[in-house]
Fold each of these.
Amino acid sequence: MLNNKIVVYTSGTFDMLHINHLKMIEYARALGDILIVGVNTDELVASYKSQPIIPFEERIALLKAIKGPDIVIPQRSLDHTDKVKKLNFDIFVVGDDWAGKYDYLKKQGVDVVYFPYGAGISSSNLKKRIYDKYKKLQDKANNHLPSDIMVRK
């Protein structure tokens, strides 16, 4: 608590910003008086999954531009022990795909909420759908000639 205000912290990569990101931010916003959003740096993301499509500078600018967050900061580590002390947050909200990962924060007096992210929409899922559509178009373009036509090489 900061000046009798409940501080909520949420974080993520926020690559290819989509509706589930917005729902989680809206939910986190409703839990307190001050919402701080941490955006994972490209270096942090590369340490546990593939590089984001959208560069860090653009992802953090997008989060600063939407309504909801009071403060948007870079997140350079998945360990939030020091952040609790520095940011003084009371509640941590993260997608339920991280269930159990942040239970250690409860020992620091932080309520941990695993937001039910919802089926079907994720940045990884969007990337796969885009790739699959691209591959289909590429195959169609590469196979547009009838098989009995000879192509000079």
Amino acid sequence: MICKPASLMSNTVVITGASKGFGRAVAKAFARCLDGSIHFVLSGRSQPELSTLLTELTDKSEPSRNISSEIIIGDVSQPHELTNLAERLFKKDSLLRVGATTETNIYFVNNAGSLGPLTNVGNSAQSAMEITNVINTNITSCFFLTSHFVKRY
């Protein structure tokens, strides 16, 4: 990520799959690179790892920075959870509260994903359930959450 000031506007950053890997690194990059207030809405399956990330984001901020956050636990591989997860991720009061008197930039990083069990094709057949889980995680949830985000904003 190239660090350029986004202005002194308020910023809301919604990240799925924020507890590990790329999602975690993206959260840290936003905290480092954005000017102004930042409200993080961090989603993932691991409450402890998301809590640790929140501490890291707020501990490293300058005293003059206004960084707030919330954690939303959810599993994008479960289609029956997606509607509820979308409602919790994209609440207007969460996304727009950072700077009620200024405009708010809203960033959505739809990062949650999984390759499932990594095996060589032919060496170990994946079950239909494993394949369905990979499709739900990487395709269904991506389309569903992005659709809900676009409808609202």
